[in-house]
């Protein structure tokens, strides 16, 4: 496990640049005023750089919140914050596992599991929590397609089970409330990031490995002529500002370093003012101002969140109140990290 690289500070770089540039000035001792001018320029430049406020960061450094306790969770591939209680998260395993959701504390403690009736598991890759008309739901995205060969993918929506006591009893199950078969308008697509934009009444998808990344959507509740199977996910934006792997990434991890920019999770705050995009190496936060669409929001560079480099970061989500971000690894042992918001104000949509 490693931490993001710490880069040189701006003042040091400026001083180095000023030193090299100063050699081009005519500083002949017969003209002492030249020394004064050069010194004044250097002092002014350094003072200006030191006085420039740093770019505001919405989230602080990652803290270790705990370990995923339940040993049955051996490939945590999705994460969502409960809409019923602030101390609970939901997760699930990756491809081919039993169709089952796991309740996990915000400290990683085990709170039991819930089976899904009416769902299958081909390649579950993400999980989203949302609320409509006071009813909390969980959306399970069976959208993984490593070889881009699935004719369609599936979404399963269930009413979020209510945890009473410390853990769910063995054998607890919930039925699928509704499901959606989905195809992408430009053909099969490996997708590991799905989120629900409740104010916009849509479900968002992000491609995993295309360059640039592609953002798609379908209606949350298809109606009228849109009620058809499968639903067609249409492309609404491209996300071109995710840095690609560097030579240092490839040297550090010759086998998997080349994949560090690939997307593994997606989430949206409850008010749909922010979008969280998680890759194998980093997480990025995109703000959406009032009146903006996601096209405008993701066209700007996202703020990089300093998540630790884990073996296989596959799951991430906002907390219930949007004031924290949680991330974890698909590999065991699975550490659970939390990043807390440090800014006091963030934009909101209409």
What does this structure look like?
The protein is mostly beta strands. The chain contains four helices and 21 strands. The chain has an eight-stranded mixed β-sheet with strand order 6-7-8-10-14-13-12-11. Strands 2-3-4-5-9 form a five-stranded mixed β-sheet, with no helix packed on it. Helix 1 runs antiparallel to helix 2 (32-51). The longest helix has 20 residues, at 32-51. The protein is globular.
What percent of the residues sit in helical stretches (DSSP H or I)?
10-25%
Mean pLDDT: 84
Q: Just name the CATH architecture of the largest domain.
A: 6 Propeller
Oligomeric form:
single chain
Main sheet overview: 8 strands, mixed
Q: Count every helix, treating DSSP H or I runs of 4 or more residues as helices.
A: 4
Shape: globular
Largest beta sheet: strand ordering: 6-7-8-10-14-13-12-11
Count of individual domains:
2
SSE map:
Blueprint (H helix, E strand, L loop, with lengths): L9 H13 L9 H20 L7 E9 L10 E4 L6 E5 L7 E6 L4 E8 L8 E7 L2 E8 L10 E7 L13 E3 L2 E7 L6 E7 L4 E6 L5 E7 L11 E9 L7 H6 L10 E6 L5 E6 L3 E5 L6 H6 L3 E3 L7 E6 L5 E6 L5 E7 L9
Helix pairs in contact: 1-2
